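re: that chain from earlier
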Amino acid sequence: MNLKEKLYKRNRIYSGKAVGFSADKITLPNGKIAIREFLEHPGAIAVLPFLKNGKIILVKQYRYPIKKITYEIPAGKLDKGENPVKCVQRELEEETGFKAGKIKKMFSFWPTSAFSNEIIHIYSAKDLRLAKKNPDDDEFIEHIEIPFKKALQWVKSGKIRDSKTVIALLFWQ
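^ sequence. v structure.
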């Protein structure tokens, strides 16, 4: 069976600094017309940083859409044409004040493929050394160092609910 949907007419609703929104008319496999509303995103990286003492680094920050403080692995949006490894290096230093000697790709995933084209590339980082923390002007974050097993307990208790963080921790385990 042919499952592929085809663009009939593009309808860009909004194009912002970080994301865009579209409500495209598409042709379904049976020839009927439907609308697909979705978020357009340039992609992102996330990194699971390991300290030599066996702890990992998480960032604590307030997330406006859910009105809550979250615990997450460091992450950031890819700039157009940016190499993901360079983005890992930049975001790790910006958000935690550490540089990594070893960076290794773990996997990539689509967090919400039903309504977004965002892809997140997950990396691990080891051989960390102190650098200068330099968050973006609109970022107010703290980094914390916790044992890996404690982070897994936070997933089970619901203290960590961020998808990229949950997936990275469970994947590594």
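The first strand starts at residue 6 and ends at 9.
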